[in-house]
Structure formats: structure tokens, C-alpha cells
Design brief:
Belongs to the NAD kinase family. It is built from five helices and nine strands. The protein is α/β, with parallel strands linked by helices.
């Protein structure tokens, strides 16, 4: 089993270029992200090790999203050598376009979905606000950064 990438969330004073006033604000105990204190300051995410596996969730029935997804999957594999998961529907669309995408992974049932959090480091949603909200069930079952 591959080890998941780790990341750190922190906040610092606006305009402060040094790490002098930077504070870590989260802990990851028992799979939950919790903050040490509330803050209205900007929060930054820094990967401590590079992500290895990404889950891409897409807006259904959108030609522009389908094209963007294919381009993104190709780039993530060729340039970053990432492992890529997509929804079963998306894998079918990618394979219909080209056999190049045979490396893309997906799931078959709810048990496999519930175990994705053990492999996925990053969730990318392609679409609008509605797509993010619709796909929240995948992200909420995983401890992954969602962009």
C-alpha cells in the first residue's frame, strides 16, 4: 500500500514573508481536521510530501468538462506521474475517447468508495458550485484536500 502524502495548513500575518509569525492551525487526529483556534487570516496549504493519487470528479453531461478532464488526466499522468481515480462514468468516457486512458482507476461498489480515503491525497472537482456540492459525499468520506 502506498503512503498518503501529508500536508500542513497554517496561517500567517498578511504581508509577512518570513515564517516568524506562521502558526500551524490543524491537527489530523483520528482522521478529523480540527483547528487550534479560529482566525480570519488567510490559510495556506503546503505539501510536506508530493501528492501521489488524485480523484477527479466531474459535472455530468458537459462536453467542455469532458474535454478538460481528458486533458487534465493526460497532463497529471505524463507530467506528474500521479495515480488517477475517476467516477465509473468518466472512465467509460475516457476509454471511449482513447485506449491511452486504461491506467485510470475507478470503483465498482460502495465498499470501494468508502476505502478511497486510504489512497486519495487530493480531490479535484471540474464543474461549478453545484458539482462541488453534489460530489461532497465523496470528499466527506475521505481526509483529502478538496480543490
Amino acid at each position: 500500500m502506498m503512503r498518503k502524502a501529508s500536508f500542513k495548513l497554517s496561517w500567517c500575518c498578511k504581508g509577512d514573508q518570513s515564517d516568524q509569525h506562521k502558526h500551524d492551525i490543524v491537527s489530523f487526529e483520528k482522521g478529523n481536521i480540527t483547528t487550534a483556534s479560529r482566525s480570519s487570516k488567510q490559510i495556506s496549504l503546503k505539501w510536506e510530501s508530493p501528492p501521489q493519487t488524485v480523484l477527479i470528479l466531474t459535472k455530468p453531461n458537459s462536453t467542455s468538462v469532458r474535454v478538460l478532464c481528458a486533458e487534465m488526466v493526460r497532463w497529471l499522468k505524463e507530467q506528474k506521474n500521479l495515480n488517477i481515480y475517476v467516477e465509473p462514468r468518466v472512465k467509460g468516457e475516457l476509454l471511449a475517447e482513447s485506449c491511452f486512458f486504461k491506467f485510470v482507476e475507478t470503483w465498482q461498489d460502495d465498499l470501494e468508495i468508502s476505502n478511497l480515503h486510504t489512497e486519495v491525497d487530493l480531490v479535484v472537482t471540474l464543474g461549478g458550485d453545484g458539482t462541488v456540492l453534489w460530489n461532497r459525499c465523496y470528499a466527506f468520506t475521505m481526509l483529502s484536500a478538496l480543490f
